[in-house]
């Protein structure tokens, strides 16, 4: 297999296209919540980089208690393995004590 250079823009375009495809599929199935339990997989291989799996999980923002619990359950599934490295993204203009992502990460 021949290694091909890929730009950051091409990666972004692939993610946007897959997100649009997934959103459309969810709408057709009647899921209008925007919450999808299946990860989007984008595989990039290179001899010059380590084997890493990155999973971008949804933020803990929700309109209903049920949606919030679904999101938290999904997050717990992915952060439980001992090999997981958890990166919590946080808006610097908001009090960190209110970020539920830190709370979930601290519990594992």
UniProtKB/TrEMBL annotation:
Domain Dynamin-type G: 1-108
A GO term, aspect molecular function: GTP binding
Cellular compartments per GO CC: cytoplasm; membrane; microtubule
SUPFAM superfamilies recorded: P-loop containing nucleoside triphosphate hydrolases
Residue ranges the record marks as coiled coil: none
Taxonomy, superkingdom: Eukaryota
Any matching Pfam family: Dynamin_N
Signal peptide per UniProt: none
PANTHER family for this protein: DYNAMIN, DYNAMIN RELATED PROTEIN 1, ISOFORM A
Protein name: Dynamin-type G domain-containing protein
Upper lineage: Eukaryota, Sar, Rhizaria, Endomyxa, Phytomyxea
